[in-house]
Design a protein that fits this description.
The chain is an alpha+beta fold. It contains 4 helices and 7 strands; from the N terminus they run E-H-E-H-E-E-E-E-E-H-H. It has a 5-stranded mixed β-sheet with strand order 2-3-4-5-6. Strands 1-7 form a two-stranded antiparallel sheet. Bound molecules: zinc ion (ZN) (2 copies).
Length: 174
């Protein structure tokens, strides 16, 4: 998913182009890496400012049941792309103070797919859940409880055992 910004780099500062995804688009790309939304590219003094909101989904592992699922993500993109070569002279440019910034490669293209991947990594929750009420795995036998109960007795957290005694009146002195 590469955007050619060669022409836009020759335009005046402030010129804007809009790209939308997810309506028509390349179906093969979508199957592999679904994207829906809109971005704007604005010519800046140094390069091109990308802004917009994109919805995508990535394969993630549920932190409770360890199953893989598709995590939907909304990415708010705001990034200045810096060219690696001068668009009129072809001379290489470097931006030492901008390490890690998104770049426009020497063919004056910007890899949106890579940018989305980087944003998706940051947007991914620390503990992804395949669904809000994921039942997780049985701590005794490892059975995926989303598929139904296992034959183990309902486990009691040892920290809660004294509480249970209180409730049931066991172990009371006097
Ligand atoms: Zn799960
Ligand atoms: Zn079990």
């Amino acid at each position: 998913m590469v955007i050619d910004v060669c022409e836009q780099l020759k335009e005046r500062i402030g010129s804007t182009r809009h790209y939308s995804f997810g309506r028509s688009g390349n179906s093969q790309d979508e199957a592999d890496f679904p994207l829906q939304g809109e971005i704007s590219l604005t010519r800046t003094e140094r390069g091109i400012l990308v802004t917009g909101v994109l919805n995508t989904r990535v394969e993630a592992m549920c932190s409770r049941c360890l199953g893989t699922f598709h995590q939907p993500l909304t990415l708010k993109i705001e990034e200045e792309l810096l060219p690696t070569v001068d668009s009129s002279t072809g001379a290489p440019l470097s931006w030492p103070e901008e390490e890690g910034a998104f770049i426009i490669n020497d063919k004056q293209e910007f890899d949106l797919g890579e940018a989305v991947r980087q944003y998706a990594l940051l947007a991914l929750p620390m503990k992804p859940l395949c669904r809000e009420d994921c039942a997780g795995l049985c701590p005794t036998c490892g059975h995926n409880l989303n598929l139904g109960p296992c034959s183990c007795a309902a486990p009691i957290d040892p920290r809660l055992a004294p509480l249970k005694k209180l409730v049931t009146g066991e172990g009371k002195d006097g």
